């Protein structure tokens, strides 16, 4: 019986391998950065890193490391408790208040990850009488969170405002009490921005709330890096923002919901991943607090990131690659075929460029790609090195 179970798992794993979908993790022998050391047994080799969410390049920032160390000294290693039992540290509350100030909301609540924030945000706020209307390309954690709520679920094709309107009408026709439109601020696989002005206009016309998951924007897009609502000029028309401390804002870990006071207060009472999971480690909270302070003032890093984005796009287009259009630091290089994406990733690896190939089921069939991400941690020379490596690998594989 148990032997058959483990055999069954081995067969599933073999199938994943046969389908060419097996994911292997590379090991990095040092901090995250623009150039990283890849560990292969005893061997170390340096590569230019185009696949981290380290947009502002803060993951190894000395002031953040120092702040984390000071947090460790002052507040210890861990909390060993959930907050409603043992309380939070002053540090956790300070971080919540700083996130709320940064994003311009009444308050914020911390979770162990944005995956948990999205997993816990819907169920306490909306019931069976309500409707959640979700973009089909929303992050997995939103999909899971929506599933955990009792609200009626509606989906609209990525960025399709006509379909969104149709779904709003359907929800009204079904007698929905409250309606919530939920979208990623930046869609991670394509780098597309959500059309927040249109979403907010439709929300207002149909009396719906708007929630934006801004994980791929907070810290680097919009004024002071306040994210897509600010970038799109709808900062005061989005009611709920979820985000992560694991990308631009230092890249450690932790997630949050920033929203009006009653939303935050109810989540503290009812959000299950908040109630039944440990508080963030003090060092992470202290480092993240410093990361927000640095991010707010980091116009230099934001301009470098934007300049790299332009430079890489121009260089790659000149080299003959097909890119998805866009302006965010997520730049997908389209190869369409899964095999080609894998071969290209391997050829780039051999040329000292670290990228990730994405193919079905992560992206639709026929839309395989190498997703590249720019970072302020890269130098201009790194960006040029990466373009040259792409051109060389592309020629070698006869893709350009
Ligand atoms: C990365 C990401 C998450 C998960 O964030 P974690 O803090 O790493 O759990 C959620 N939503 C979106 C859109 C993301 O890109």
Explain this structure to me?
By secondary structure, the protein is of the alpha/beta class. It has two domains: 32-56 and 299-396, Aspartate Aminotransferase, domain 1, CATH 3.90.1150.10; 62-296, Type I PLP-dependent aspartate aminotransferase-like (Major domain) (Aspartate Aminotransferase, domain 2, 3-Layer(aba) Sandwich), CATH 3.40.640. The chain is built from 15 helices and 14 strands. It has a seven-stranded mixed β-sheet, sandwiched between helices. Helix 2 runs antiparallel to helix 12 and helix 13 runs parallel beside helix 15 (380-396). The longest helix is centred in the last third of the chain and has 20 residues, at 299-318. The structure holds pyridoxal-5'-phosphate. Pyridoxal-5'-phosphate binds at residues 113-115, 118, 139, 141, 184, 188, 213, 215-216, 244, 246, 255.
What is the strand and helix layout of this fold?
Layout: H1 2-18, E1 27-28, E2 35-40, E3 43-49, H2 62-75, H3 83-86, H4 90-103, E4 107-111, H5 114-125, E5 131-135, H6 140-148, E6 152-156, H7 161-173, E7 179-184, H8 196-206, E8 209-213, H9 228-231, E9 240-244, E10 255-259, H10 261-270, H11 272-275, H12 282-296, H13 299-318, E11 330-336, H14 338-350, E12 353-354, E13 356-358, E14 368-373, H15 380-396
Parallel strand pairs: 3-12, 5-6, 5-7, 7-8, 8-9
Antiparallel strand pairs: 1-2, 2-3, 4-10, 9-10, 11-14, 13-14
Helix pairs in contact: 2-12, 4-12, 5-6, 5-10, 7-8, 13-15
The structure holds pyridoxal-5'-phosphate (PLP).
């Amino acid at each position: 019986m148990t032997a058959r179970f483990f055999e069954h798992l081995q067969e599933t794993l073999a199938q994943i391998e046969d389908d060419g979908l097996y994911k292997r993790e590379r090991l990095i022998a040092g901090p995250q950065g623009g150039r990283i050391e890849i560990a292969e047994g005893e061997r170390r080799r340096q590569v230019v890193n185009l696949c981290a969410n380290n947009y502002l390049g803060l993951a190894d920032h000395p002031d953040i490391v120092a702040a984390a160390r000071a947090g460790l000294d002052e507040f210890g290693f861990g909390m060993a408790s959930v907050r409603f039992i043992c309380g939070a540290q002053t540090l956790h509350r300070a971080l919540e208040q700083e996130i709320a100030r940064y994003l311009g909301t009444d308050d914020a609540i911390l979770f162990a990850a944005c995956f948990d924030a999205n997993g816990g945000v819907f169920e306490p706020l909306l019931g069976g009488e309500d409707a959640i209307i979700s973009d089909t390309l929303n992050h997995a954690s939103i999909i899971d969170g929506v599933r955990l709520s009792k609200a009626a679920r509606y989906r609209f094709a990525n960025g399709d405002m006509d379909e969104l309107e149709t779904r709003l009408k359907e929800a009204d026709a079904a007698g929905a009490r409250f309606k919530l439109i939920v979208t990623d601020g930046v869609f991670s696989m394509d780098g597309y921005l959500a059309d927040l002005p249109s979403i907010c206009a439709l929300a207002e016309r149909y009396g719906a709330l708007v929630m934006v998951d801004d994980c791929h924007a907070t810290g680097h897009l919009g004024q002071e890096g306040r994210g897509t609502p600010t970038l799109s000029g709808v900062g005061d028309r989005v009611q709920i923002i979820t985000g992560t401390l694991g990308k631009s804002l230092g890249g450690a870990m932790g997630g949050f919901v920033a929203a009006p006071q009653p939303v935050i207060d109810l989540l503290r009472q009812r959000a299950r991943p908040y109630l039944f999971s440990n508080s963030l480690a003090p060092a992470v909270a202290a480092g993240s607090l410093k990361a927000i302070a640095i991010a707010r003032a980091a116009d230099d890093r934001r301009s470098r990131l934007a300049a790299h984005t332009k430079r890489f796009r121009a260089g790659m287009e000149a080299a003959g690659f097909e890119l998805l259009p866009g302006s965010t630091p997520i730049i997908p290089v389209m190869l369409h075929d899964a095999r080609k994406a894998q071969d290209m990733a391997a050829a780039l690896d051999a040329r000292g460029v670290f990228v990730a190939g994405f193919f079905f089921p992560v992206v639709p069939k026929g839309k395989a790609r190498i997703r590249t991400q720019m970072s302020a941690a890269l130098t201009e020379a790194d960006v040029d090195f990466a373009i040259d490596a792409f051109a060389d690998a592309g020629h070698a594989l006869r893709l350009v």
